[in-house]
Specification:
Layout lengths: L2 H37 L4 H16 L2 H16 L7 H27 L3 H9 L4 H31 L11 H12 L3 H27 L5
């Protein structure tokens, strides 16, 4: 198999990698904020449940979580795991995992805001919702952006873990081609794809971070 054919095959798999990446990111970023609110809730039971959830997500491998999401319905209630469910399990597993990490990042940013800003907003007549949306959130975005960027870059690489549930994306294709052709070239090409993708992600996030540098 020629280099060009390998490249084109892996390029087709890269489309699936991008699809997983963007869907997980679109779900986990807002979901992480909801998880944070649950963790910070004054309702103790909800807060404890969320803390346990975050601990499990951060304390167990993502690959193991993907296997649970995929095989769990079958072993628990003999559910049908065929058809489109494999893709759904991947998106759910990755999104729920990354939401836990984003929730902790948001928490660190929100807790870094001085309490005096809340008190000043209250004296000016802002509601709690208006205070958070117009005063706290813009500052939090600026504070947490470097940490969010690191997680986004990690997500690019973690898309390769979906091969554990036999989903065909770029890394799974690279493994198949390498085994069939007994060559390491597919892994080199796949590595180049991941690297270029991460360079683009880092560049975009860096531009956003510069735009939010209010004090320059």
């Amino acid at each position: 198999m020629s280099f060009q054919v390998m490249f084109l095959q892996l390029l087709s798999g890269f489309g699936q990698t991008c699809l997983i990446f963007f869907l997980v990111l679109a779900i986990s970023l807002p979901l992480g904020m909801l998880v944070y609110f649950g963790r910070a809730s004054r309702f103790k039971l909800l807060s404890i449940v969320i803390r346990v959830y975050i601990s499990i997500m951060r304390g167990t491998p993502l690959m193991l979580q993907l296997l649970f999401w995929y095989f769990g319905p079958y072993y628990l209630w003999h559910g049908n795991i065929g058809g489109p469910y494999k893709f759904i399990a991947i998106i759910l597993g990755c999104s729920v995992n990354y939401a836990a990490y984003f929730a902790e990042i948001y928490r660190s940013g929100i807790e870094a805001i001085p309490k005096g800003q809340y008190e000043a907003a209250q004296m000016l007549g802002y509601t709690k919702t208006a205070t958070f949306l117009h005063i706290i959130l813009p500052q939090v975005v600026k504070i947490v952006l470097p940490s969010v960027t690191n997680e986004v870059i990690t997500l690019v690489k973690d898309t390769s873990l979906v091969y554990s549930v036999s989903y065909i994306e770029m890394f799974a294709l690279a493994k198949q081609i390498a085994a069939a052709q007994t060559t390491i070239i597919p892994f080199v090409i796949a590595g180049a794809f991941y690297y270029v993708f991460n360079v683009i992600v880092a560049h975009v996030m860096g531009r956003i971070e510069k735009r939010l540098s209010y004090y320059r």
